[in-house]
Amino acid sequence: MSETVAPVSVALIWAQSAGGIIGHNGSMPWHLPEDLAHFKELTLGSPVMMGRKTWDSLNPRFRPLPGRRNIVITRQEEWNAPGAEVAHTVTSALELAAASAASSDRVAADRAQKDVAETVWVIGGAEIFASVLKSADRLEVTEIHETFEGDTLAPERGDEWMLVASDPSDGWHTSATNLRYRFLRYENQQAQQR
Predict the structure, then answer these.
(1) Can you name the CATH fold of 8-177?
(2) I want to staple 102 with a disulfide (CB 3.0 to 4.6 A). Which of 5, 47, 53, 57 is the partner?
(3) Per mean pLDDT, which range of 95-99, 134-138, 172-176 is the poorest?
């Protein structure tokens, strides 16, 4: 019996404030429930990759993130976390994620036949984003119109990233916490040529 290998698409997802701030002192400096719901909607059922600091920043009640295969990247050889798989390089984390896409269940086989890629979500932090950005296919960015103090910046997008969707298409949503925000999707035009 031959193993079915489904294609894998790599997407990055983050929220950023004006000035590109994504974090402060190991956490997000805002509370935006609509962004958390958007994150859950997009990532549920897919593998998520993150650095150890991002794992540590998650509320312990939500570790591992439910309904997702959690892969944590760390240089610490002995580190482990219940409910997560550990990788010591970005490459090995991507291989773990691809292995889940290659499972022999019916869904993976159907996905492979239709040439639909399973999405592997990279959810942070900044160092992991920077190492994966050029090889990623898609970015999902929640842009917050407000300014926040922070010590961690979003990666800089190059010219290869094209904005393909904005919600709303013009202007901003206003959250229950009175923050203005919008959801932006970018696609890597160089990835389209691979």
Answers:
(1) Dihydrofolate Reductase, subunit A (3.40.430)
(2) 5
(3) 95-99
